[in-house]
Specification:
The structure holds two protein chains of two kinds. Chain A is α+β, with helices and mostly antiparallel strands. Helices cover about 30% and strands about 25% of the residues of chain A. Helix content of chain B is about 65%, strand content about 0%. Chain B has three helices and no strands. Chain B is globular, with a radius of gyration of 14 Å. In chain B, about 5% of the residues are buried. The chains are: A alpha+beta, B mainly alpha. At the A-B interface, helix 9, helix 10 and helix 11 of A face helix 1 and helix 2 of B.
Chain lengths: ~550, ~60
């Protein structure tokens, strides 16, 4: 069954008849990034208005590959389990050269994590689940479909937006304007911001097909198959993925000078797919042809206008870094913006969103540019090295590791950046938390990430005294159960293996480690927490 | 000697990228000359004749004589 697109209702906004009180946050774009942003803020009590020019979820599957870190963030936003249940969990990736398999990899060899390395789930499901979740906050999230933002002006303390609806135009004011309006961001265009980078000439054909039989040979297990120079598509690359509802995603590299429109025509696509799946019956669900670019904005924060997701950075699709990068942006910005709006942190904290995520997106761009370069050699010498690497890969493991069909997204580390207090520990400050299974004192089973994410938390592993600090939650792992805070024991020692023992970790609300202690004092913990909230930035500005 | 030992990871992409950069913008003949110089420099760095002979045989193994 193909996806059933149900339009969201348009409701005439109040601003058409009378001026609206100034909004705290206006989110422009109700894709996965804008919706996740609204939910993150709502969970911290911050209201927002979400404006989208459309009234349906993503047409076509688009972003399908969601990484473990993204699922962990979705868990905090209350949609992770639903996505995991519907999504296809794949564990094995296979690389082929011609018809022969040269390399396969297992993505999550390690036990003791709530979420797998990746799931495949069509963007329309992700958006549907996020809209459902957003509707759980009727007082905090004001979703406005068919509300197209046509202009905005930053007045220093607030932004004025002009909005077009089927019933006419109106305007609103918002303290912050979050641009989640995608790779072609009209906000960015209006501001005349430079968005140039490496554009790749190669075009890719992307097709979703619906079929009952698995195209993965005799294996029924969902996998990711990548071909260099497949027999069915000589000289090019191809990728095959499974999605829920018996939908399969096929990516085929086209000639540099191929006519994109002609290639997307059904009579041209069908024979290409038959060459891969043979005579097994299938139905064509969605086709698109794309070229890609690797670009990011110089600055993600422009006073009261903040760019999040594809509006700030775009990467090639190989390696699952587009949608996943955007969700990590939301995770990074959400708690900072909430702290600033609640008066608990200086405005300068928002600038660290740029510092931390610009670093993450540069890493994504580097990785995806390299993968693209490997997949599409530009000169005879590049082609020669690629061909010989592939030949060696059949026999030598070092050459297998050189094969690059996309290095799949890993959570970005914020090591050495301003908000983190330097320290040495099994998991060093800056790293995203590693999950671990836990058992509560009453015997219930839970996960470390579910207990920790969402607010500043001090977690003590083993015998370490944790001081009382105002506004800071404490959790004890493998400690004596006499303390007056929640206590858990690790299951199968995963937690101790990942974090060590006799030490405490201070986690930011987004689950990144911001300090570690062997013998934490009130003063040290307070100082680390203040630093994570930008206290040092304020001092630097004052000085 | 076991050439299967992977000594490049986790920096393998940095290496491959640096190798491609070294060839960037060169005409094909210049690239082949660069490769020849690189082989000679690497041979000197490895230094051990027995190892070099085995590597030469391993590479030659792919040629259909």
């Amino acid at each position: 069954m193909g996806y059933d697109y149900k339009p969201f209702a348009y409701v005439a906004p109040p601003g058409l008849t009378a001026p609206e009180p100034r909004h705290r946050v206006a989110i422009v774009g109700a894709g996965p990034i804008g919706l996740a942003m609204a939910i993150d803020l709502a969970q911290q009590g911050i209201p927002s208005v979400v404006l989208d020019d459309n009234n349906v979820v993503s047409v076509g599957s688009r972003a399908i590959c969601w990484s473990k870190r993204t699922l962990e963030i979705f868990d905090r936003l209350g949609v992770g389990e639903r996505m995991l249940e519907k999504g296809v969990t794949w564990k094995v990736g296979r690389n082929f050269h011609g018809a022969e398999e040269v390399y396969s990899f297992d993505l999550l060899p390690e036990a003791g994590h709530k979420y797998p390395a990746f799931i495949n789930l069509q963007q329309y499901y992700v958006e549907e689940y996020l809209v459902d979740r957003a509707r759980a906050f009727p007082d905090l999230i004001d979703l406005r479909f068919k509300n197209k933002v046509t202009g905005h002006r930053d007045n220093g303390e607030f932004v004025v937006l002009t909005i077009e609806t089927p019933d006419g135009d109106y305007s609103i004011e918002a303290e912050y304007y979050i641009a989640c309006d995608g790779a072609g961001s009209p906000t960015r265009t209006r501001m005349g911001l430079d968005f140039t980078g490496q554009t790749f000439q190669e075009q890719f054909l992307i097709a979703d097909i619906e079929m009952q039989d698995s195209p993965f040979g005799d294996s029924d297990v969902p996998e990711r198959w990548f071909w260099f120079d497949p027999p069915f598509h000589p000289g090019k690359s191809a990728l095959l993925h499974m999605q829920p509802d018996n939908i399969y995603r096929i990516d085929l590299q086209l000639d540099v000078d191929a006519d994109g429109k002609a290639e997307a025509a059904e009579e041209k696509v069908i024979p290409r797919i038959k060459a891969i799946v043979g005579e097994k019956p299938f139905k064509l669900d969605w086709v698109s042809v794309y070229k890609f670019r690797c670009i990011k904005l110089d600055r993600f924060v422009h006073n009261r206008v903040i760019f999040v997701g594809d509006s700030a950075h775009v990467v090639s699709p190989f390696g699952a870094r587009g949608g996943n990068g955007g969700i990590q942006d939301v995770d990074n910005l959400g708690w900072k913006l909430a702290a600033v709006l609640k008066g608990k942190a200086p405005e300068a904290l928002i600038e660290t969103y740029h510092e931390e995520r610009s670093h993450g997106s540069a890493e994504n761009i580097l990785n995806s540019s390299r993968a693209t370069n490997f997949m599409t050699p530009k000169t005879p010498v590049e082609a020669l090295f690629r061909a010989e690497t592939l030949r060696l890969a059949h026999k030598y493991s070092f050459a297998r590791r050189l094969l690059n069909s996309g290095r799949l997204s890993q959570p970005c580390s914020l090591e050495g950046m301003a908000l983190q207090t330097p320290g040495i520990a099994p998991l060093e400050p800056g790293f995203a938390m590693l999950d671990a299974p836990l058992r509560s004192a009453a015997g219930g089973e839970t996960w470390l990430l579910s207990e920790v994410q969402g607010q500043f938390t001090l977690v003590g592993f083993g015998e370490v005294q944790m001081p009382v600090v105002d506004g800071l939650r404490r959790i004890g792992i493998n400690q004596l159960e006499t303390a007056d805070f929640p206590h858990f024991t690790t299951v199968d020692g995963h937690g101790t293996r990942r974090y060590g023992s006799e030490r405490a970790y201070l986690f930011r609300p987004d689950g990144h480690v911001c300090a570690t202690f062997v013998a934490p004092t009130v003063h040290d913990v307070q100082a680390a927490m203040a630093r994570a909230l930008g206290a040092q930035l304020r001092q630097e500005i004052a000085a | 000697m076991n050439y299967s030992d992977d000594k490049l990871s986790p920096k393998q992409d940095d290496f491959y990228n640096a190798l491609m950069d070294a060839h960037s913008g060169l005409p094909e003949a210049e690239s082949h000359a660069l490769n020849a110089r690189l082989v000679l420099l690497m041979a000197n760095q490895i230094g051990d004749l027995e190892t070099l002979k085995q590597l030469l045989a391993a590479a030659r193994d792919y040629v259909n004589d």
